[in-house]
Amino acid sequence: MLNKRHSKLLTNLQTRHGRKKSDAFIAEGWRCCEEALRRRPEWLEALFCSADAPQSPRWPAIAALAAAAGCEPAIVAEQDFAALTDTENPQGLLCVLKRVECALPQALADPFCLILDRVCEPGNLGSILRTAWAVGLRSVWLIKGCADPYAPKVVRAGMGAQFALDLPVFDDLAAAAAHLRQLGGSGLWCTLPAADTTLFADAFDLRGCGLVIGNEANGISHPELGRGVTIPMPGHAESINAAQAATVFLFEAVRRGLFTSNP
Hints:
35% helix
């Protein structure tokens, strides 16, 4: 059953204004909730399920993880559970998690650093985080102006990536570039449609560098901070989606052998 505190919290988290005032966020669905419970159990505030969720074959794993985190799931009537979510077809599982601010990295833990410069479309941000996790990155640097990585649409698109990645936030691209240099990095590659260097060129070497993906409409805020690199497009489209571009670059890094295994 929902108590008054949980009911008020969930109501607040359903609006953008309420989320801004809160230090919590929502993850929905079996996959997202299981990733949260496995990877960030210390973030867990509450776990809610519909009345039929315990009949799922996936329930024992969820129940065990919740117990290990010291949380007893609250079972909610199916019609009441539907009112808690903003999805058309809720899966019957929802957790409330603490929003934890990520400290700035103290070392370059990955072969290169992916930097998202004001990527503001939630679906794009979530998809990029999912791809970054898939190739083996352990962190993604965000520049202020990016969509909230813990907004419901971003969490759904990320499908658990937010719980596997560190997501430090920088005031601007110059601050991220300076921090990269402090950690021994060797500069930025800025993804630009008109750049002379393509991602297939030998001159494009990501090791120890930052790869910057820019805003969907306005591109990279300060491209002069790095060298330009582009994806060759023989067709007539002006550009491709930011998440698509990030995927092409990240899997080119895989093809070149920069990753050996997933974390």
